Amino acid sequence: MIAFCCCCCVSFKTRIFFDSFESCFYVIVIHSFGILIGACVIFKQLFSRDVRVRSQVGFEPERRGSHPYLGVDFRTLHTRAESAGTIPARRIRRLFSFQRHLLSSRLLRGAPQLNPLHILDEDYCGQAKCMLERVGSWNFDIFLFDRLTNGNGLVFLTFNLLNQYGLIELFQLDMVKLRRFLVLVQEDYHNQNPYHNAVHAADVTQAMHCYLREPKLAESLTSFDILLGLLAAATHDLDHPGVNQPFLIKTNHYLAALYRNTSVLENHHWRSAVGLLRETELFSSLPAEDSLSIERQLGSLILATDISRQNEYLSRFRTHLDENDLCLGNASHRHFVLQMALKCADICNPCRPWELSKQWSEKVTEEFFHQGDIEKKHKLEISPLCDSEANTIASVQIGFMTYVVEPLFAEWARFSDTRLSQTMLGHLGLNKASWSAMEPEASGSSEEGESEPGRATEEPSSRVLSQGSQES
Ligand SMILES: *[C@@H]1O[C@H](CO)[C@@H](O)[C@H](O)[C@H]1NC(C)=O
Ligand SMILES: *[C@@H]1O[C@H](CO)[C@@H](O)[C@H](O)[C@H]1NC(C)=O
Ligand SMILES: [Zn+2]
Asked: Is residue 312 domain-shared with residue 383, that is, in the same domain?
């Protein structure tokens, strides 16, 4: 039984390798309990899993995975030569840790204290568990957490938060379905992307958690709002190709046509998330109208992260604050606040302590410059901020902070005037000063006359906005 099982695993493509291992595991469990009849059902499920659940009502979820452009596969876009050999090994390690994970979760099903970490190697386990005790801290080091969880940071963090808020119990979420959903979400991020990968998603989810705990939100949000906020954060960049919308448009990518050049990536992230929700049937026990409402609201939250629409959201927010008419007893106002919270979480990198913030800056710039290199290679116009010869990490960051991050967080601090908001603005100021010190000519006061075309000083607003659409 076990031998057959392993053969079937090997014959599957990597994409469903993970799933089949999960199924194999069931088979082993079933076998050991002598209930062979279950195996047929399991195998049937195994073969139907690769089929995307298609919508009967409402939105079409999208197929998962690689979308070629210019004959290049998205998934290999950011593969670096030195990491190529290590990916299979990493995958397998993660696979095994997931398998142990599943074992423990199945054995523990129904146990009151759900602990997702005890299957990890002992030494890492202790440290990761220890970190989770301070998961609401603004200094939380998501890079370290991701390493300690063997690259499973998004799964562990999201699971832990859902559990901590009591949402698993409240919504009667099936542990196996939930686990599978989170693993698929994590796997649908492209780990080859320097920036838009599962660690960014985990970081945004952690930031979202910090905002959900702010007094104004904590006392008004419903469990449903919190569930949506966390799910939206975890899935908001799902299957991000590592290039921005203008790139997809100018290379005639089919997603650009599908979404009519509008919020192309955000629509894709949303539909991909809906696809995974349906595939895993995570909310199948909820009434159909509730799960449809989750899908719809998830979309409205994820679409709000389109940075090219920032002004629209920001001026609405400003108007509410000026007129002091946000009423958090009203569901549509709460939803709007969640949209703003997710927007903040998505671009909060410059508000983190320097050591964390700096790493994000390096990663996002690496991704931009990589896009610029592809554009150069294919003789396409080089997108703003993507030309490594015309920009530096510092110039990109200073523009982004000045025109995108500062205005948003200034309003957020007006809405939620707490110690966290002051901390974030404090880091923002310090980080900007640090980058400015490295980039004296970009500080705006230079009159040396070396106005290089393509610098961040020219048309800063639109240039930075187009960067943002990639950073979101
Ligand atoms: C999207 O933009 C491209 C390039 O500007 C254009 O050729 C195409 O017609 C646009 N598609 C839609 C649906 O507007
Ligand atoms: C909630 O707010 C929306 C938008 O401002 C408004 O249209 C709606 O009437 C409000 N609902 C209630 C119950 O006050
Ligand atoms: Zn993002």
From this structure: no
How far, in Å, CA of 267 to CA of 179, rounded? 24
192 close to 76: Cβ distance less than 8 angstroms = yes
Best substitution site from 245, 249, 380 to test ligand 1's pocket, by max atoms within 8 Å of Cβ? 249
Q: Domain range holding 341?
A: 62-68+90-346
- 305 Cα: distance to centroid of ligand 1 (angstroms): 22
Domain boundary, last residue among 346, 367, 391: 346
Burial class (CB in 10 A: 0-12, 13-18, 19+), 64: middle
| pTM of the complete model | 0.76
pLDDT tens digits, 187-241: 999 999 999 999 999 999 999 999 999 999 999 999 999 999 999 999 999 999 9
What distance in Å separates the CA atoms of residue 459 and residue 349, rounded to the nearest whole number? 23
Which percentage of the chain shows pLDDT scores above 70? 67
Is 31 assigned a catalytic role?
A: no
Closest CA to 341 of 408, 402, 426, 296: 408
Residues 340 and 448 occupy one common structural domain: no
Residue in the structure block whose two tokens are 């880091």: 427
* In contact, 307 and 468? CB cutoff 8 Å: yes
Could you give the C-alpha distances from 284 to 162, 177, 228, 279, 294, in angstroms and in order?
Answer: 18, 10, 16, 10, 12
Q: How many structural domains are present in the chain?
A: 2
What would the pLDDT profile of 254-307 be if each residue is shown by its tens digit?
999 999 999 999 999 999 999 999 999 999 999 999 999 999 999 999 999 999
Residue 442 has φ and ψ, to the nearest 5°, of -90, 0
Atom of ligand 1 minimally distant from the CA of 252: 3
| CA 441 and chain centroid, separation | 34
